[in-house]
Description:
The complex is a heterodimer. By secondary structure, chain A is an all-alpha fold. Chain A contains ten helices and no strands. Chain A has helices at residues 2-17, 20-28, 30-56, 65-75, 78-107, 124-127, 129-154, 162-170, 173-200, 209-235. Chain A starts with a helix and ends in a 5-residue tail after the last helix. Chain B is of the alpha+beta class. Chain B folds into two domains: 4-115, Ubiquitin-like (UB roll), CATH 3.10.20.30; 122-136 and 145-248, Fumarate Reductase Iron-sulfur Protein, Chain B, domain 2 (Orthogonal Bundle), CATH 1.10.1060.10. Chain B has helices spanning 37-50, 122-129, 151-161, 168-172, 179-190, 199-212, 223-227, 235-248; strands at residues 4-13, 22-32, 73-74, 77-78, 100-104, 113-115, 118-119. In chain B, strand 1 and strand 2 form a beta hairpin. The A-B interface holds A 22, 26, 29-35, 101, 104-105, 107-118, 120-123, 126-127, 129, 192, 195-196, 199-206, 209 and B 10, 23, 73, 75-77, 81, 102, 104, 107-110, 172, 174-177, 179, 207-208, 210-211, 214-223, 226-227, 234-235, 237-242, 244-245, 248.
Amino acid sequence: MVGWFRITSYICVLKNLIPMNQLVKIINSSVGRKLIMALTGLFLCTFLLEHLYGNILLYNNDGGEAFDEYSHSMVHNLLIRIVEVLLFAAIIVHAFQGIVLTRKNAAARPVNYAIKKDSETSSWFSRNMMLTGAFVLFFIVVHLYSFFVPYRISGLDEGQAVSQLVKESFENGWYSLFYFVSVLLLASHLNHGFQSAFQTMGINNKKYSPLIKIGGTAFAVLIFLGFASFPVVFYFGWMG
Amino acid sequence: MSETINLTLKIWRQKNSASAGQFVSYEMPGVSTHMSFLEMMDVLNEKLISKGEEPVAFDHDCREGICGMCSMFISGRAHGKLKGTTTCQLHMRHFADGEIITVEPWRAAPFPVIKDLVVDRTPLDKIIQAGGYVSVNTGSAQDANCLPVPKKDADEAMDAAACIGCGACVAACKNASAMLFLSAKVSQLALLPQGQPERKERILNMLSAHDEAGFGNCTNTGACEAECPKEISISHIARLNREFLGANV
Lengths: 240, 249
């Protein structure tokens, strides 16, 4: 009985330390949900840069040695393993919140207009983030299945290097095309998402906003050119 | 340019909120290009009344672009295709001879159709009632110089205060979000000294009222600022987001 009382009193103290009601209110509000989208989205952007850096090691003319070493070191780095959990969490939260927001937004307009000239006031990609996002999520699942699962869970064939697995995957034309299109849609998602995240975090002024917009587009182009180069280069066999 | 044009109007007719509506076509020959859109609607209604038919119900009041009552979605655009204008300030010279014009009410779950082109916009009033005011009893007005306001802030507050609450932002937004309206009302008070005492409760209460009314969320596509007859910038929505962060941290 005394023990139970102690536990409940601990819970009460914890409740006072963390204002749960307020936290729930923030998370459930429209601006709060958008903030979650912005923060998880920007976190995923930093991962893309890191991932691109790793992939570029494939272009080292050393039979994939640098890339394999890098992959090996990533798996055996404790910090990376912790960030990896956060990364999966961010993907799930970003996707879940995106679906919740899309459903709420659709419910806010139950009857559509007979004629609506959206293209005169906003871009197609900014209006279809759910569509591009859903495709990218599908791509992530396929991508994990083709590289993450064999490398980390089921194990590679004996003597097979991960760089070898990458090169073999891109020898398949359909896979390379799918990868290319996915990266293109990812870039279009980033083109709106990157600058949109800053607006959601309240950063918008005459001086910096044009720079953020250009920066967002430049980031999207960099991600596209960077990642789309791998299927092209390996499919056409431009690298040995 | 010829002085008159012939038009076909496709207008949404709905008896009341409970009944289903449909489009009805009306031929409008010899419309003077000097008329405003609402005057053209008046001519149509006079014709309908003389034929013993029910006139088209639509909201209107000042007819000089400052009251925010007129609210038509004209051929796919809120208040028509002209930038920075209300429907009453849209003139028929901007339409071509032989054009088919589709006229619809604002479409949003929080804005049910009352009749024809008239929608219930009281959810916008509910947002204001939740905190879009200064309730501190300040007694008689002070000398203006006692409350210094930087010119930049005064200008920005004035830009936000230009919002006439017409709801074009909601109508144009793909998510039927009222964020531009809400942000204009929050912004104008957040920038001025009189708005400071209630600053934190204001944003939280007004945002709750916005969400409870069933408006959608902002996805930063910028359709609202493109359609706003007062050309209010989405930089006010960024301020709203900052206010929200400031009130919670």
